[in-house]
Amino acid sequence: MFLVWVDTLARTALDPQEVPVGVVTSLIGVPAFVVVLYRTRGATT
After folding, report:
1. What gap in Å lies between CA 21 and CA 12, rounded to an integer?
2. Among residues 9, 19, 24, 28, which is most buried (max CB within 10 A)?
């Protein structure tokens, strides 16, 4: 479901052009991964 929303966003963000889905996925996924990484790192120490 996440990729469906990301694909829709990638196609409509810059209307005459399409943004690659991987770029939009990484823009959303990297901050989420960093948050999860810091939360789990803090819980183990």
Report:
1. 11
2. 24
3-state secondary structure 34-45: HHHHHHHHHHHC
CB 23 within 8 A of CB 10: yes
Return the structure tokens found at 40: 């789990």
pLDDT (average), residues 25-31: 92
d(CA 29, CA 40): 16
pLDDT band at 45 (very low <50, low <70, confident <90, very high): low
What would you measure as the largest C-alpha separation in the chain, in angstroms? 49
The rounded distance, in Å, linking the Cα atoms of 31 and 21 is: 16
